[in-house]
Amino acid sequence: MENILAQELELQHKLHKLEVRHQKLKSQSKYLDLTKISTPENIAAIAKSRREMAMTRNAELLSDLNIASSKLHTKNMCPLESKLDKMKQKFLQECDYNRKLKTDPDFV
């Protein structure tokens, strides 16, 4: 009985995926209507709209990637940068201390 229910759920999932794919292809087909391609102007207009859609999609993807990378930088790099700054300050203080020891014998 459980196997039948599992198979039914799997089939429903596959059917849903097919319906989503069908809708996606159906929505894309309106941009690929070959009956509208009769003149070079129509071809240019279709190409222009395709370029605009691609540019919009690319801009959205770049924006998402920028947000994701800034989150990663904030999460991973900021603590490392602060540690590096502290180490740098400590090193500079030690260098100043050593320089003063070498130049001023009464410093100690």
UniProtKB/TrEMBL annotation:
Coiled-coil zones: 1-28
UniProt entry keywords in alphabetical sequence: Coiled coil
Domain of life per record: Eukaryota
Record-given protein name: Uncharacterized protein
Organism: Folsomia candida (Springtail)
